[in-house]
Amino acid sequence: MSTAEEAVQLLARVPVFETLASDDLAAVAAVAVPRRFAANQTIFREGDASDTCYIVRAGQARAVREHADGRSITLAHFGPGDFFGELAMFDAERRSATVETLSEVEAVAITGDDMRRLLREHPEISMKLVVSLGRRLREANERLSRQSFQTVQSRVATVLSQLVEKARAENGQSTDDDVLLVITQSDVAQLAGSSRESASRFLAVLERAGVVTQGRGKITVHDAAALQRYVY
């Protein structure tokens, strides 16, 4: 299969582009440039010039915001079919977050100029993009709500459940399969709005109960249904 055909298949799985006909997908693929990043590599930093958006073909990455005192918070995780840096489609403002890889990542890159031209030619992409950005905003609001009203255990269990659901959709796994999450305890804590120590203690409880197994930079979920017992 050619690189162009692979790009078309990837774009067809991305919600923003899923309504496009095959010829239109080919037009988008024609301006998409394959990119490969090593594990633990920074793709771009908060404050960098914003001129390119990326769609993940394989691998995992995360978006983080950094504080002047050295602390950081994980905003989102990206896997196959996800896109990031999409604000480059609208303007040339500086990057609002740092994106770094958690594993080797294969992606396609589309410049802001090319995307803006495509948006003019295909208004339906604009609507899909608005829906996608709205979904991210709702997720952020839900996370803030959880951090305000739920216990640490409930927040961590919710984060793990959401990551499991996403991984299953990406990999075509059944509900009976173990699910490997490429994520650190620190990232889980940040997504759950808790301290690393509190998240670590609860993950240890889940491990003793056989719900998860922890490894270096990864968590394997054996019993996703059991996580719901901790969500309230």
Q: Output the strand order for the largest sheet.
A: 1-8-3-6
Q: What series of H and E elements makes up the topology?
A: HHEEEEEEEEHHHEHHEEH
Largest sheet data = 4 strands, antiparallel
End-to-end CA span: 47 Å
Q: How large, in whole angstroms, is the Cα Rg? A: 18 Å
Mean pLDDT: 82
| Structural classification | alpha+beta
Give the overall silhouette: globular
Strand content: 15-25%
Question: How many distinct beta strands?
Answer: 11
**Helical run tally:** 8
Q: What is the share of helical residues?
A: 40-55%
Low-confidence stretches: none
Quick summary:
44% of the residues lie in helices and 22% in strands.
What this model shows, in words?
By secondary structure, the chain is α+β, with helices and mostly antiparallel strands. The chain is 44% helix and 22% strand. The chain has eight helices and eleven strands. The strands form three sheets. The protein has a four-stranded antiparallel sheet with strand order 1-8-3-6. A hairpin with a 2-residue loop joins strand 10 and strand 11. Helix 1 (3-12) packs across helix 2 (22-30) and helix 3 crosses helix 4. The chain is globular, with a radius of gyration of 18 Å. The chain starts with a helix and ends in a 5-residue tail after the last helix.
